[in-house]
């Protein structure tokens, strides 16, 4: 089983739709979670951290379910500019910060 | 600097030649990571530095790959005797040791011909 698993998609959604991605992780010692966005032929950029209580940033909501070992990203009112690949990132903190990236979920928002 | 700087941004090299890729992390970031990404693929972990030491180099694909970091700052990834399968974008990221997200450089696009 991969340490971090994501559905690679693509998810094709119309403008204005709500779309959700999940990401599962296998290491129960994982402590930090992030969502990154990567545009075509660009480097990944931090979208948002994921906190235990869940957090929201505008149209984006991230949630963590430690019991089931998954995190989610919800995008409301999708815009064409949201088209990108969304990477799930998991870090096991401590003496050595092992970081694992998911393969990414591709989102295409269509007019 | 303000961001993670990588150089060169593009490198075309002949098969069999050695290349050096440079990463200049954000000042004060003690953790530094190298990844590579082939076209349409996910990020492949190569090596992690904490300060000048590399506690995890498990991702280096062969002994042709090596990396070092000096002064807790600049890192160099060296690929010897390059092969066509080494063609990819090599990304560097840095972060504060105590947490927070990572900042990536814009990468070096390596093409081996």
Please outline the helices and strands.
The complex is a heterodimer of chains A (about 110) and B (about 110).
Chain A: E1 4-6, E2 11-14, E3 19-25, E4 32-38, E5 45-50, E6 55-57, E7 60-65, E8 70-75, E9 84-92, E10 98-101, E11 105-110
Parallel strand pairs in A: 2-11
Antiparallel strand pairs in A: 1-3, 3-8, 4-5, 4-9, 6-7, 7-8, 9-10, 9-11
Chain B: E1 5-7, E2 10-13, E3 19-24, E4 31-37, E5 44-50, E6 53-56, E7 65-69, E8 75-79, E9 88-96, E10 99-104, E11 108-112
Parallel strand pairs in B: 2-11
Antiparallel strand pairs in B: 1-3, 3-8, 4-5, 4-9, 5-6, 7-8, 9-10, 9-11
- Judged by helices, strands and strand pairing, the structural class of chain B is mainly beta
* Form type of chain A: globular
User: What Rg of chain A do the Cα atoms give?
Assistant: 14 Å
Strand content of chain B: over 45%
Assembly type of the chains comes to heterodimer
State the total count of DSSP E strands of chain B: 11
The end-to-end span of chain A amounts to: 37 Å
Characterization of this structure:
The complex is a heterodimer of chains A (111) and B (113). Chain A is an all-beta fold and 111 residues long. In chain A, 0% of the residues lie in helices and 55% in strands. Chain A has strands spanning 4-6, 11-14, 19-25, 32-38, 45-50, 55-57, 60-65, 70-75, 84-92, 98-101, 105-110. In chain A, a hairpin with a 6-residue loop joins strand 4 and strand 5 (45-50). Chain A is globular, with a radius of gyration of 14 Å. The model of chain A has no long low-confidence stretch (mean pLDDT 92). Chain B has 113 residues and is mainly β. Helices cover 0% and strands 54% of the residues of chain B. Chain B is built from no helices and eleven strands. In chain B, strands 2, 4, 5, 6, 9, 10 and 11 form a seven-stranded mixed β-sheet that branches. Chain B has a four-stranded antiparallel β-sheet with strand order 1-3-8-7, with no helix packed on it. Chain B starts with a strand and ends with a strand. At the A-B interface, strand 4, strand 5 and strand 10 of A face strand 4, strand 5 and strand 10 of B.
